[in-house]
Sequence to fold (434 residues):
Amino acid sequence: MMNDLANQTLDYALKNADQAEIYIEITENVDATIQNDQVDFAKEAYSMGVGIRVICDDKMGFAYTTQTKMLEETVKKAVSNARANQVDENFDFASKSEYPAIKGIYDRKFHSLELEDTINLGKSMIGTVINNKCQPTSGGLSAGCYKTLIINSEGTHCEDVSTYFSGFIAVNVPDGVGVSTASESDSSRKLDIDPEKIANKACEIALNSRGGKSVETGDMKVLLDHHAASGLLSTFSQAINGDNVQRGRSIYADRMEKEVSSPSLNIYDDGTIKGGLNSSSGDGEGTPSQKTVIIEDGVLKNFIYDIHTANKGKIQSTGNGMRASFTDMPAVGLSNLIVDFKECEELSEIKEGILVTDVLGAHTANPISGDFSVEAMNAFKIEKGKIAYPVKKAMLSGNIFSILKDATAASQKKRQLGPFILPSITVSSLRVVG
Fold:
């Protein structure tokens, strides 16, 4: 059905445009939402949408619809939008390609998952929180199956089927004068999400955060747990975005083949890894997914590009033209960004410092300079290689690009949070404001 629909739409579009691309997305979702100690809302949903891009006289136009009866009208809208757009000779679509076989991104168990199953998983999460003598405040479980098809006038035919499962819980617990709060989440391509494990982790952090003490302001060693590290790395990801580089919005713009981080650091973007949350055979415009080395032994090697930005730089797309859905045009984005350190400094080796579970306000960091000032969430003082006590309130300030010059892994264990696959990270010195 998807193929017939796409081919019919492409044929019609090519009667009105020089080039055309049809993107079809079918999604099935099962969701349960937690509010306080109840699963207060659960739903099953099915949707199909079509995104149409056309190029007319070097002008790009886009339109989308959820109505199969409106495809011809949607093509006309895309053509009309192109006519009103500016000429840009860098507009193009993906050429016909072979695609890598991606493993571990589809779990057929999704199709036997009933709404009642999701509700029960939510109830299990709530029960675990209550058994830990904590109070659930919000959360939920989500499961989805996504089918996408991209065809275009250049012969591209890229099809993907994938599943996605996630769970989240936020909890609080009385803390004498107030409450101690914490949250935990997990995501997977397989139906192996463990709601009890997620709930136990959130409760453990909240319970351990009670009775926080103030910490003296100063520069000290900071251990960033997975959530905190991934929050701060979002600023780094903007600096390797080819569009930002071309616009002069990246500190790395003139640093190619120069040392920009610790020699022990390797970073690469890989849309092909088994089970990656953003792995797929092709990106959102049909360019085959690939592994792109960003930093190798501390030296900057590449940026990431979609077709448009790659054409502007007279290079090849790295397969990073990402779409949130059929309602969006592709834009430069990460697939799976993997952070590898050769060196490791674990908590047990830290004489004095602070462990930060998560950060609040990472989005306020300066994307060009890399300067940030964030609130440390669920932080703990480290003394003689052990957790000494929870920290009441603290701010962290520093620079993400400086961090990469003197950081090491804090553990061998990696987690994927959003597009980031990374270990917890030890930073030699950050300003901690108590």
Observations:
- The chain has eight helices and 19 strands.
- The longest helix spans residues 115-131.
- The domain at 2-207 is CATH 3.30.2290.10 (PmbA/TldD fold).
- Residues 270 and 291 are 4 Å apart (CA to CA).
